[in-house]
Amino acid sequence: MVSRIVTQYTDLLRTSDYDLWVRLRELLRGQGLDPERTVVVELLQEGPDHEDGRVISEGGRVYRFTLYYDQADEHGASSARLGGWADITGSWRDGSLGTRAADAFAWMSSASSGGGTS
Q1: What's the whole-number mean pLDDT along residues 52-72?
Q2: CA nearest 62: which of 17, 111, 103, 19?
Q3: How would you class 32 by CB atoms within 10 Å of its CB: exposed for 0-12, middle for 13-18, buried for 19 or more?
Q4: Rounded to an integer, what distance in angstroms lies between the CA atom of residue 73 and that of residue 1?
Q5: How do residues 70-85 score in pLDDT, each as one tens digit?
Q6: What number of other Cβ atoms are within 10 A of residue 71's Cβ?
Q7: Does 10 have pLDDT greater than 80?
């Protein structure tokens, strides 16, 4: 069963007008990913100025990144920038989010074969 975080964050990535999600869509496009076909495994606040994230591209590549922005500024997310962008496709199973990522892959496969998105 796919994590609620995966489904909620993926939906937010694709539909939210909130500055953070709008900016993340822009940044992902800049990395060659289509936000409409990208799955968010995690986006977790790790400090007052950044969040750590993991996404899976339509092609099955897994990426880790840090999203830096001024969280105290009401519109700080609109100028967020990516740091530490890394392709972790070969090692995502080793991390603490391995199970969640595996579930996200299964969910992606189910959704693309007509099995639904929930």
Answers
A1: 95
A2: 103
A3: exposed
A4: 36
A5: 988 888 899 999 999 9
A6: 16
A7: yes
Give the tokens for residue 110: 């189910």
Evaluate if residue 31 carries a pLDDT over 90: yes
For residue 28, give Cα distances in angstroms to 32, 84, 113.
6, 13, 24
C-alpha span between 5 and 95 (Å, rounded): 17
Q: Which amino acid is at 44?
A: L
Cα(first)–Cα(last) distance of the chain, in Å? 10
Opening angle at CA 98, ends 56 and 44, nearest 5: 70
The string of DSSP letters for 25-63 reads: HHHHHHTT--GGG-EEEEEEEEETTEEEEEEE-TTS-EE
